[in-house]
Structure to design on (275 residues):
């Protein structure tokens, strides 16, 4: 009587979907609107300064414009699809192994956004520090590698593939930090005290924020510890801080100091604004 009944039908795979609810969707809309409004504000601020002082305004307005477009895509259900993770589940009583298939939403529009906007954010920092062209190039290429390997990680079919790509992305991230922190600190030393202090503060803020992204990724897309709504909310908070808050801080500070404007002269030799 205690013998388990022998099933006559071998069970099919157990299929799960992990998707956002209305909470996630509403969050995407809120960020979309905030990115749109910040873009308008940044373009407006650009018009108020002479052309040769507009580089930071233009870069920063582009950053929030790309974010606006990517959030518009995600809020309307575009730029999203599913990855597929297949795991084998073993059972007791000699029952055959079954498959567990998890489909989780991947918001790939984020990676399109990040592949363009994170290089532009780095350019903001690099121009502020007067970084040389070679270091800027290395930082930007490493950044593109970081985001594209992150995109491949998001579609990893198994843990080896997923965390393998994640590892390459983290190494690329270390290259970026090295270029901006070490190179940036060396060149900003040629600038006035105010610019030096401001670069230290805004680069530190950026470093802390950017480091939270791979942590959120690990908990959400990586290990599926948090659900899709939590992932959306976490990235929403980070994106607002990394783009509009970063942008307003940079532009208001820049507009109040004469010394931060980069000049194109000597860019490939001494670094932008160091001649
Ligand atoms: C991924 C996953 C793979 C490992 C690493 C990552 C880093 C992402 C970063 C993103 C920054 C985004 C910003 C967006 C602005 O709105 C791709 C998450 C290291 C640093 C600043």
């Amino acid at each position: 009587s205690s013998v388990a009944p022998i099933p006559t039908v071998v069970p099919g795979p157990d299929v799960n979907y992990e998707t956002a609810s209305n909470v996630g969707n509403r969050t995407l809309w809120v960020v979309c609107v905030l990115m749109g409004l910040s873009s308008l504000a940044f373009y407006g601020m650009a018009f108020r300064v002479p052309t040769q002082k507009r580089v930071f305004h233009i870069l920063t307005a582009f950053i929030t414009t790309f974010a606006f477009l990517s959030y518009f895509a995600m809020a309307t259900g575009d730029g999203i699809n599913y990855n597929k993770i297949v795991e084998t589940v073993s059972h007791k009583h000699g029952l055959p192994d079954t498959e567990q298939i998890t489909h989780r939403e991947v918001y790939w529009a984020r990676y399109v956004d990040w592949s363009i906007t994170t290089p532009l954010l780095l350019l903001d920092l690099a121009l502020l520090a007067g970084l040389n062209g070679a270091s800027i190039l290395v930082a930007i290429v490493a950044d593109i590698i970081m985001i594209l390997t992150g995109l491949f990680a998001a579609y990893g079919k198994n843990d080896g593939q997923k965390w393998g790509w994640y590892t390459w992305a983290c190494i690329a991230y270390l290259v970026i930090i090295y270029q901006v922190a070490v190179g940036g600190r060396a060149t900003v030393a040629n600038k006035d005290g105010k610019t030096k202090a401001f670069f230290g503060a805004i680069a530190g803020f950026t470093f802390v924020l950017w480091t939270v992204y791979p942590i959120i990724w690990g908990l959400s897309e990586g290990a599926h510890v948090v659900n899709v709504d939590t992932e959306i909310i976490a990235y929403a908070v980070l994106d607002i801080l990394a783009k509009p808050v970063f942008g307003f801080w940079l532009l208001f500070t820049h507009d109040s100091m004469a010394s931060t404007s980069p000049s194109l002269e000597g860019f490939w030799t001494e670094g932008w604004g160091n001649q």
